[in-house]
Amino acid sequence: MKKLAIFVSTSLTLLISNSSFAGSPEAGKSLHDEANCLRCHADKPYNPTKTDTYEKLVAAVSFCNNNMNVGWFDDEVEDVAAYLNQKYYKHPN
Ligand code: HEC
Asked: In sequence order, which ranges of the chain are alpha helices (DSSP H)?
């Protein structure tokens, strides 16, 4: 019984961490709208040539998250990166 409980909780953890790793563009869109990122980035358009890999995109989102004190967790940063990637960057990831 104990083994079963461990198995179930391990599978659940894997499931949850796997799904949050990819990032959800839908969740990212809401977060991005709420944080009003476009108050700066409408004038400073997201630039796929400058931020030329998905890893750099995640780092850039994380950078602005920290500097603007938005308070997103890592999985929310991934969601926003997934959204921006789908809409503007289109990098393979
Ligand atoms: C106060 C202004 C400001 C706000 C608000 C802001 N940023 Fe930024 N952001 C910058 C600056 C400055 C840079 C780096 C310099 C540049 O790209 O010109 C940058 C760079 C970036 C980049 C890389 C830019 C590129 O060209 O690829 C991303 C992605 C990004 N920010 C995401 C966000 C997200 C997501 C938010 C919302 C939480 C946000 N930013 C809010 C000022 C801002």
From this structure: 2-22, 25-34, 38-41, 54-67, 74-84
Q: Span 57-72, mean pLDDT?
A: 98
Cβ 77 under 6 angstroms from ligand 1: no
User: pLDDT of 21-56, one tens digit each?
Assistant: 579 999 999 999 999 999 999 999 999 999 999 999
For residue range 74-86, list pLDDT tens digits in order.
999 999 999 999 9
Contacts of residue 62, Cβ cutoff 8 Å, sequence gap at least 6? 74, 77
Please name the residue that has the structure tokens 């040539």.
Answer: 49
Pocket test for ligand 1, best of 32, 51, 64, 79 (most atoms within 8 A of CB): 64
